[in-house]
Amino acid sequence: MPVDEQCPQRTKQDWSSVRVRTEAVTDQRPPMLLDEYLRPLSASQYTGLDWISITQTPYVSSGPTTQADKCPGIISPDSLTKDTRHSPRLPLSASAAVVIDQQQWKSLYAKEPTTVRPIASITKLMTAMVVLDARLPVDDVIQIQRQDIDTFKRSSSRLNIGIRLTRAELLRLALMASENRAASALARTYPGGEKSFVAAMNRKAHELGMRDSRFVDPTGLNPGNVSSAFDVAVMVNTAYQYPAIREATTTRERRVSLLRGHRMRLLTFHNSNRLVAREEWDIGLSKTGYIREAGRCLVMQSVIGSKPVIIVLLDSMKKATRIADANYIRHWLSEETVNRIAPRVPEIAGSIQ
C-alpha cells in the first residue's frame, strides 16, 4: 500500500497547533574527534569548524577552496534577513520555498516562508544531528527489530528484521536512501530510547531558534513533524556544518553487506535525490522527503555561480516538479551571475591588458 494512504487528511491550520513536550536529556560524554566518525576529508578542509560544538561565527574567507570553506557557522532564524518585498516571481510549483544566500545570510527568494507544514523525511537531518551530538560509538552493531517497522504509514523497507549494521552505516542509509527503519533503530538505541531522542530533537530545534518547528518521531513519517521554510533553512545550514551529514547526503550510491543470521547479502542503495549525480550541480548537502500531507520536499546546499545557497522546496506535487523547481532556481541564479558580471567584461579585459 502506498506510503501516504494510512493517514487521514488534515487542514493546514491543524499543523500550527501541534505541540510536543520536551524533556531534558543529560550527556556528559567527552567530545568525539572528527576523525573517529565516518570518512571525513582532511582536517585542513574544516579549519574553524568543530563537528560537535560550532560557534556562531560570521562567514569570513579570503578565497574558499572547498565546499566546507563556503559555509557560515550556525545562525539563528532571527538573524536571517527576511525582507521578501523584492522577492522575484519564479514559477515554482512548491507551495513553500526559500533560497538563502549562505554568505550574507539573507533571503533571495521566498514563497510562503513562515507557513507551518509537515516536512516528511527532511526530519532526518535533525535525527542525524542528534545522533552525532550524542557521540555514541559508531562501530556499535545494531539489529533491526520489529519495533522499527512502520505501522503508521506501512512504508516498505529493504532492511528486514534481524539485519545487523553499525550505527555509522544506519546513519548513512537514513540520510542517503531515507531508510525509515534505519532512522527508527538509531532513535531506539539512543540513551533513554525514542522518547528521549525526540525530546533531544525538539531541544536542538529550540536551541537553533526554530520556533515554528515540532518533532514527534525520528523518521518524518508522522505528519506531526512540522516546520516552516525559514526554519528548515536554518536546520539545513546547521546540518551542513557536520562533515558526516555532508558526506552521506551527497553519496550517489552505496553497496552494503547485510548480515542476517549467518547469511550475508550485498545490496545497492541509491541516493533519493538524483541531482547529486548531475555534473551541472555542485551539491554540498541534500535531503528529500515525501508523505501525502507534506507533498514532495527537497532541500539542498549548493554553490551556484560561485554563490553558496540553501534551497528549500516544500510541498511539490510530484518528484519531477521538485526537480524542475530546483533546476529553475539554478538557471535563475546562474543567469543573475552572468548579468552581474557581463557589464564589467570590458573593465576586466582592460585590466588584464
Q: In CATH terms, what is the fold-level topology?
A: Beta-lactamase
* Most strands sheet: 5 strands, antiparallel
**How much helix, percentage-wise, in residues?**
25-40%
As residue ranges, the low-confidence spans are: 1-72, 341-353
Superfamily (CATH H level) name? DD-peptidase/beta-lactamase superfamily
User: What spatial order of strands do you see in the largest sheet?
Assistant: 2-1-11-10-9
> Under the CATH scheme, which architecture would be assigned?
3-Layer(aba) Sandwich
**Kindly, what is the distance between the CA atoms of the first and last residues, rounded to a whole number of angstroms?**
67 Å
Please tally the helical runs, counting DSSP H or I stretches of 4 or more residues. Answer: 9
Task: Average the pLDDT over all residues and give the rounded result.
Answer: 78
* Number of E strands: 11
What class, by secondary structure content? alpha+beta
Shape designation: globular
The fraction of residues assigned to DSSP E strands is 15-25%
Order of helices and strands: HEEEHEEHHHEHHEEEEEHH
Number of domains: 1
Q: What integer value in Å does the Rg equal?
A: 20 Å
CATH hierarchy class name: Alpha Beta
